[in-house]
Amino acid sequence: MSQDRDNYFMEPMRMWREWVQKSEKQWSEALTGIMADEKSSKMFGHYFQEWLHAQNMFTEMVGQQLAALNLPSRADVLGVEDRLGGVENALSSLTAEINQLKKQLAATNQAPSAAPTKPRRTRKPAVKAAIKPDPIIKADDK
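^ thats the sequence. predicted structure below, dont judge the formating
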């Protein structure tokens, strides 16, 4: 009984799958026949060229309007995305080089010190001479 019940519920799915397969086959045959005709192929080619031209005109018009509003167009955003990708690639290569240099330093037991060293003093400080009092000349002494 359970097998009959499973077949009953699976029957609509099987019928739908067969219908989809037949429909795909019919559409494929119809489109192959249409595209085999040179006249219809030229018509579709012309239609697509016109559509691409209209799309380019629309994109240009929208770009001009966005520029007037001081907003970026899609091309501007994509350009920034490309440049940012280049910056990210350069940064990752620099990070890899830094990591490689750290490994080389660790391998030679020359780990970088935590605190920076102060430069050595090469000049000696000036010797402070004792301040001698200036003799005050009194007017009475003259």
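Residues 72-111 form one domain.
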